[in-house]
Design goal:
elongated, about 0% strand, mainly alpha, 3 helices
C-alpha cells in the first residue's frame, strides 16, 4: 500500500524556480552583452558568450541529474519507509554529536 502526498512541495517551486531564475539571468546577461557590443573588444564578447553557453549547458545537466537523483531517492523511500526513517534518525544523531563536540 502506497500513500501519496501532494503537499510535500513548496509553492515557490523549489529547484524549478531556481533554474528559471538562472535562465532569466543568463538571458539578461546575453542581452546586456549584445547591447554593449560596441564597447567590448570582439574577443571579450566572444568569450563571454561562450561562457554563458557553457553555463546554460551546465544548468541543464545539473537539472537532469538532480531530477534523476530525486526519483531514485523517492523510490527507495517508498520501498523501504521504516528503514529510511531509521537512517535519517541515525544521521541526525551523528550530525548532532559531531556539531555538539565543536
Amino acid at each position: 500500500m502506497e500513500t501519496y502526498f501532494n503537499n510535500l512541495t513548496t509553492d515557490e517551486g523549489g529547484h524549478k524556480q531556481l533554474l528559471q531564475d538562472i535562465k532569466n539571468l543568463i538571458e539578461e546577461a546575453e542581452g546586456l552583452i549584445k547591447n554593449t557590443a560596441e564597447d567590448l573588444p570582439e574577443n571579450s564578447k566572444k568569450e563571454l558568450l561562450e561562457r554563458l553557453e557553457r553555463l546554460k549547458k551546465s544548468s541543464l545537466r545539473i537539472d537532469q541529474q538532480t531530477y534523476a537523483g530525486v526519483e531514485v531517492v523517492d523510490q527507495i523511500i517508498r520501498r523501504y519507509p521504516y528503514q529510511s526513517l531509521g537512517v535519517a534518525a541515525l544521521g541526525g544523531m551523528v550530525l548532532g554529536i559531531i556539531l555538539n563536540k565543536r
